Amino acid sequence: MFMADNQTPRIADPARTREIMAQYHLRPKKSLGQNFLTNGRVLAEIVAAADLTPADAVIEIGPGIGALTQYLAEAARHVTAFELDQRLLPVLQDTLHDYPNVTIVHQDILDAAPAQLAALAPELNIVANLPYYVTTPILMHFLESGLPIRRMVMMMQKEVADRITADPGSKAYGSLSIAVQIRAQATVAFTVSHTAFNPPPKVDSAVVVFDFLTDPLVPLTEQPFFNKVVTACFAQRRKTIMNNLLNWYGRTPEHRATLTAALSHAGVAPTARAETVSIPAYRALSEKLQPQK
What we know:
Blueprint: H1 14-23, E1 36-37, H2 40-50, E2 57-61, H3 67-73, E3 78-83, H4 89-95, E4 102-106, H5 114-118, E5 124-129, H6 135-143, E6 149-157, H7 158-164, H8 175-181, E7 184-192, E8 197-198, E9 205-212, H9 223-233, H10 241-249, H11 253-266, H12 279-289
Parallel strand pairs: 2-3, 2-5, 3-4, 5-6
Antiparallel strand pairs: 1-8, 6-9, 7-9
């Protein structure tokens, strides 16, 4: 935790952001999904959602010009920010020079070895304003990493946030909802208007808080096959769960009998749609279909 003096300008101030972009001749890269957050209230709310203490270590993904990094550095012991865009490295060295508890790493977070990240602290906090196109890969990377993560706070496209937190029976509920919810409790903390960014994206965003489950709803050893079952069930959303399973598992009379018994065991009607089935029912179905060793 490092408290700058009152004279330290807020990087997120719209005028300051424009000044930095002009000084470094910056144009946000569409290929990297860059939209710089210029609303201090939103940044403060993100940090509040992370529930940081002065003893915490934070991993930030995609610091941009350092707007969120500045707020994180004032709340946590140390911030390690991973930035992929080489153009932004001298910008970050300038905008964050008053914050000795910030380390900038020029690396794709997906290329960082788990041991490299685990060495940063016994318990990690991850905060990110993610480019829309990499939200799911980065989210699943950390959910499946096995790292000692206490909490993860991510800003993402509101539509994706709705899918992640959806309940069975809703149109948004799908394989992504299940993949996340078996590993973490996900909650939408608040939504963010597209006008809070420079340049403004075409859609609104949402900040989602992920609290990792000590015991996943599906044990790690069962997850690979469980994921295959769920993916098969959602292959064609308009088809019944039986039709989708037959296409994946096989259409012989023996296959149909096995699937009928498995669905009955899980309490799922063969005519049900995948989006109506709960996670416990999917686990029961997966357990019944799991090949015996």
